[in-house]
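Lab notebook page, bench 4
Experiment: in silico fold of construct C2
Operator: M.H.
Input chain length: 607 residues
Purpose: comparison with the prior construct
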Amino acid sequence: MSRGRAIENLGRAPVPEWEELARAAWPGKVPLAVAAWCGRANLTLLLLGLLTQFVAGWAHLPWLSLGAWVVSSVTDWLSTRADPPTSRLLDLVGIRPQVRGLLRSLLAASAVFAVVAPNAITAALSYVSVVLFVQLAWYLQPVLATWVSRSAPALRFEPQSAEQPAATARHLRIYARGAGTNPVILAIEVVALVEATLAASVPVGTNAALLGLTLSGALLETALIYLGWTAWQAHTARRDAAKMYEGLVDEMTAKQPSFLVYVSLGARQSKYIANQWLPALDALTQQGMLLVREASQLADLGATRHPVVYAPSPRDVERMLLPTLRVAFYLAYGERNGQLQRDPRLLHIMLLHGDSDKATSANNQARGVDEVWVAGPAAMERYPAAGIQMGREKFAVIGRPQVAELPIGPTGNEHPILLYAPTFEGYYDQTSYTSLDVMGVRLVRQLLRKHPEMRVWFRPHPASGVYRPSMLAAITEISTMLRQAGDGHLVTADEELTLNDCLTKADVLISDISSVATDYLYTERPVLTCNPQGMAQADFVAEFPTQASSYLIGPHLEGLEQALELAFGEDPLAPARLAMKKHVLGDTPDGPQAAFEGHVARVTAAR
């Protein structure tokens, strides 16, 4: 795993909703490729720049300090759009962009003060004066953004698009000024620093020195004018908030959506929770809408034909309950679901985002919705098995539209591909099913050593490492092994392969108790399931019934070689796997998408 990925998994400092929104659709013009490159170099250039400025001050080399300031500052600005992991790490320890800028400014001022010339002190003081006003303008940009956000309306959002609706773009411009390194602030200060460096080397009383003082005054005024301009835009945005809200409601009402998909998830989970439903939702004939509660979901949300509305507050949710809406779909048991579920006018339906024997698949909160739509009979059986008694009429079987396009049967690969796709450690001890940090490294090492005929692909769960550092260490070690092995071995993230891309190509899957394993049943190819707790086979299958058609691997890799021999040989579990496929993924006559469409038509017409 790359250093950037390791840093990214540490998380980022909490930021306001308005900053997450700004980063979801950055309004600047810096090309993303340039921003990404600068993001990778940002931390290195920051540290080198500060060190160079420090040395330049002691060596009385103000021009060297100026050069280091420019390189470090410009890199910081260019990387803002990419939101690099290194910047997140700096944010996490309190070194936000304004602090980084102030550190550079202090060292730059020291270098000017250190010049052995009569005008150096005056030049340095004039630069410091500009810096004070620049910092004032910079620090107040987030304050103004927060002020605007508190009265902002719900906003239309176009996922994966550089062009946003007018009201959204208007707010983004204000919010972006408070996030990262501001280019206008940067331009004002670089002019002040160049002027101070020049003025420090000319005799006192010359026209150049006088011009420098005049320019410093003009720069002070420019910083204040820029701050005033942002304040005016913030004021007008607040003034027009009610009008923008009316326009949004009118626009959405004209679309006449009959259902709403409620997206409220853990930070940045839309990538693997919401996005898996978008193709099925887009294929519906009915018009719907997505209501997104957290701005952190927007950057990774996929493009969709259904309008997306960012609605952060409970009042936003209330105001977006349009008269044509009949149904609300939920993708997870989010903490904020109740802010919509309280409304009795809608039919509330839980879709979830996968089917597996994980304890979370049978959640007592299901009692609070009107219907639970499941892939197959296996999902319905989990509820009474967990002590949750709900009538059969509360369930609807729709299959798994997400896997309907997966090819069935042998892949025809020249070299068989074995996909190792472990789950994450879970949010509770009860749901810690992962094999990754228990046996994953040994598993991959043995596969590489004993099976040169295979190609090993590795796809860990995106949330791996949320609690256990050992998960990140295992990812790093496995990724390093596969990259060094080369010759078709692959860390799937390196090629940006989707889960379905991986399932399509894999001849055999090794996984854990996870919806990845149940989705793979659709291909009818062999599944090997890890048993990291070393449970007896009978107990394992009793607790996880869908694994009756899987070959099991113990925590010390016992059973691995036999399982591989059977999977690539006579495959005695093939009939059981076919039966389990129907039991888990449903046996819908016209396919899962048709079943999904039919049930959506039923519930939207019934109210």
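Observations: The radius of gyration is 29 Å. The chain is about 50% helix and 10% strand.
Next step: discuss at group meeting.
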